[in-house]
TrEMBL record:
SMART domains the UniProt entry points to: HATPase_c
GO molecular function: phosphoprotein phosphatase activity; phosphorelay sensor kinase activity
Protein name as it appears in the record: histidine kinase
Region span, Disordered: 1-22
Annotated keywords: Kinase, Phosphoprotein, Transferase, Two-component regulatory system
InterPro entries to which the protein is assigned, alphabetical: BphY/WalK/GraS-like (IPR050351), HATPase_C_sf (IPR036890), HATPase_dom (IPR003594), His_kinase_dom (IPR005467), HisK_dim/P_dom (IPR003661), HisK_dim/P_sf (IPR036097), Sig_transdc_His_kin-like_C (IPR004358)
GO biological processes: cellular response to phosphate starvation
Record domain Histidine kinase: where: 172-376
Organism the protein comes from: uncultured Coleofasciculus sp
Matches recorded under Pfam families: HATPase_c
PROSITE patterns assigned: HIS_KIN (PS50109)
Length: 380
């Protein structure tokens, strides 16, 4: 049973192979992949010329064209792709190959990629002869590949823009936060020296430790959590979890929540401060969405090569849109939330060579899961 659970955990965080392949150029180079596609089509089909018209996300709405022509061709089609563009953009279905024109013995076929762009995207082929049913299906499969790739490229560019905006925001606010944190730290230190032993002094010490952690987190955010910046050592993750729960104790008591987690300790090589931030972000989410009097369950399983950690709540769960956007910067359902907590948590786990994902529980509520490697590769 344990072995099958391990396999399941591994399958969950493997990258999807849907549109990735070993021959794909790195990373997100639309012109290169489009050029490769038309050359592949020209090598395997009776094609004289081919065009791919698409929107380059790095150039805004500027139209970009990839063109291929057989070297042995003695003549070129006199009818250009621009002249037939208006004839098909509003009438042809997406991803279906249609014959749209002819010049002498040459046949013009088009596969529309996206008719809703400001400049329609399409694949246009000029062939010596009509394509067989099998050849048409193969062209349509290549068109689907291009649709997936170009959509992925656009999404990547969008996320890169958001990341750049996030970096600018962090840099602008860093100096504004440093001085107040230093002032809080100074006053807290003075309080600790003047207070007698007891609950008030313990709370003041917690404030002081929190100020130090916030200062460290600011530094890590400015370095974008780069892996070489990790300060890795062997820690007991149960102990770090307990500290995160303690930090949320006033909120937990207000909502009358119960935390359940194993008594057994387990050690992993991690950056302690960053992993505590992961716990803080995930537990804060769980507490926020838990009903009054609910239970939050934390559990882990130790396998040969990795540790699987799960945090489950009894809230309303996530909608389909939430599941898609959960780790997208600035997306949030929490009033006053920044939409950065889960993004930062995932970045930290990825830097630790692990994986983080979310799913709804059959009985209601959400479950956030992450894995961490048990090897010491991070310390080497």
């Amino acid at each position: 049973m344990k072995g099958s659970r391990q396999n399941l955990a591994v399958e969950k965080h493997q990258p999807s192979s849907g549109i990735y392949s070993s021959h794909m150029p790195s990373p997100f180079d639309p012109r290169s992949i489009c050029q490769r596609q038309v050359e592949q089509l020209g090598a395997q089909l009776p094609i004289v010329c081919a065009w791919i018209v698409y929107q380059d996300p790095k150039q805004g709405s500027r139209q970009s064209v990839v063109h291929y022509t057989q070297k042995q061709a003695n003549s070129y089609p006199t009818l250009s792709y621009l002249e037939i563009e208006d004839r098909f953009t509003e009438s042809l279905p997406i991803k279906t190959l249609f014959e749209v024109g002819a010049v002498g013995s040459l046949k013009a076929m088009v596969c529309l990629l996206d008719q809703y762009c400001s400049e329609p995207e399409y694949l246009l082929l000029w062939a010596y002869e009509p394509l067989s049913t099998f050849q048409q299906q193969w062209v349509q499969e290549q068109a689907q590949f291009l649709i997936n790739y170009l959509n992925l490229c656009r999404e990547c560019c969008r996320q890169q823009s958001e990341i750049q905006l996030l970096e600018q925001v962090v840099r602008r606010t860093e100096h504004q936060l440093r001085n107040p944190l230093a002032l809080i730290g100074l006053y807290t230190a003075n309080l600790c020296r003047g207070l007698p032993a007891g609950i008030m002094k313990e709370q003041a010490l917690v404030i002081g430790e929190t100020v130090k952690e916030l200062s460290t987190i600011l530094t890590d955010l400015l370095s974008c959590g780069q892996q070489e910046k990790l300060r890795v050592a062997v820690y007991d993750l149960r102990e770090i979890l307990s500290e995160s729960i303690k930090g949320l104790q006033p909120w937990i008591e207000q909502k009358q929540l119960q935390f359940i987690y194993p008594d057994s300790a387990f050690t992993v090589a991690v950056d302690r401060c960053q992993i505590k931030q992961v716990f803080d972000n995930l537990l804060s989410n769980a507490v926020h969405f838990s009903p009054v009097g609910g239970t939050i369950t934390c559990q882990w399983q130790i396998f040969r090569h990795e540790v699987l950690f799960e945090i489950c709540d009894q809230g309303t769960g996530l909608s389909e849109e939430d599941l898609k956007q959960a780790f997208t910067a600035f997306y949030t359902r929490r009033p006053g939330g920044t939409g950065l907590g889960l993004v930062i948590a995932k970045k930290i786990i990825l830097d630790h060579q692990g994986s983080l994902w979310v799913q709804n529980l059959p009985g209601g509520g959400a479950q956030f899961s992450f894995t961490l490697p048990r090897s010491n590769s991070l310390t080497s």
